[in-house]
Design brief:
With 86 residues, the protein is mainly α. The chain has one domain. A hairpin with a 2-residue loop joins strand 1 and strand 2. It is rod-shaped and about 85 Å long. The two termini are 49 Å apart.
């Protein structure tokens, strides 16, 4: 299972458990839920940071590609007596 799938599964499981805590709101259960939140928070942060870096890289690549496609060349070479861009 991929790490991101595991994180999402853990988050869904935590949500279900937190809903269960409303039924049995003892202090021990609340502490347990807080411990789980503290445990998975860095994992979720790392996942979101990784996705952001991937999106940034992809955006830069696509943006540069579109710019290169639309930019006119700076040098013109005469072909058969006509000036045409390369």
């Amino acid at each position: 299972m991929a790490p991101d799938e595991r994180i999402l599964r853990d988050a869904a499981e935590l949500t279900q458990r937190l809903k269960a805590r409303r039924v049995m709101p003892t202090l021990r259960d609340k502490k347990w839920a807080v411990d789980i939140c503290h445990e998975i928070q860095p994992q979720i942060s790392n996942y979101r940071f990784s996705v952001s870096l991937i999106n940034l890289g992809l955006g830069l690549i696509v943006g540069c590609g579109l710019f290169a496609r639309s930019a006119k060349p700076a040098v013109e070479v005469p072909v058969h007596g006509l000036k045409q861009p390369i």
